[in-house]
Fold this sequence. Notes:
The protein has six helices and four strands; from the N terminus they run H-H-H-H-H-E-E-E-E-H. By secondary structure, it is an alpha+beta fold. A hairpin with a 2-residue loop joins strand 1 and strand 2. Helix 3 packs antiparallel against helix 4. It starts with 7 loop residues before the first helix and ends in a 13-residue tail after the last helix. The relative contact order is 0.11.
Amino acid sequence: MKRLSSSPAQLGFDDLLADADKANERAAFEKLYGHLPITMEEADPFFHDLIGRHHAAMLAADSEQIFRLRDIAENLALRLNKGDPGILADENAPGCMLARLTLAEEGVVPLWGQGGSCVIELRQMRIGIKMDGLFGLGAPHSPWMDFTANAIDWEKPFLSETGYRSFLGIHAELVPGITPDRFAAEVIEAHVCKNMKGKLVSVKKKLR
């Protein structure tokens, strides 16, 4: 009599186990992120509110709350991306879409955690400041947000010969009550005093 094969693959056990693993993964994912919005329409107002709470936490210098809210922002993007970690992979990725939907109006000082651009005046310079939001590269590592500085009056002395300077990974003790524009001004002032010995430089003519 022909012996029946007991191979798990032939009995379909491999498929059953694979399906069970996927079901367990889905259940674990829903347990972690199921309370968060699943559509961009729902996520938009949720993320606006999240930024407002993050701004308040920054003004209060509440480090624990700051990073808790940033974790929620990342989890929200993961939820929208069905668990795929590429939340900033391209312009249509959830992180990028949320950042665009919540940009501050041009020229208005953004909230902490909100992307946006504004102008500050310092040492007779007009400086275009572009602030990173909750999905900025430094957001998981430093409570202070990254920003860049651009020359506006290119013929006047500036803080770099290129007319551009990035300020990334700023590690300093949190201080309550500091708004993004004041923070940028204080960081730039410290940079000019310490790194440039208090002297501004001309922007290279070929870059103007």
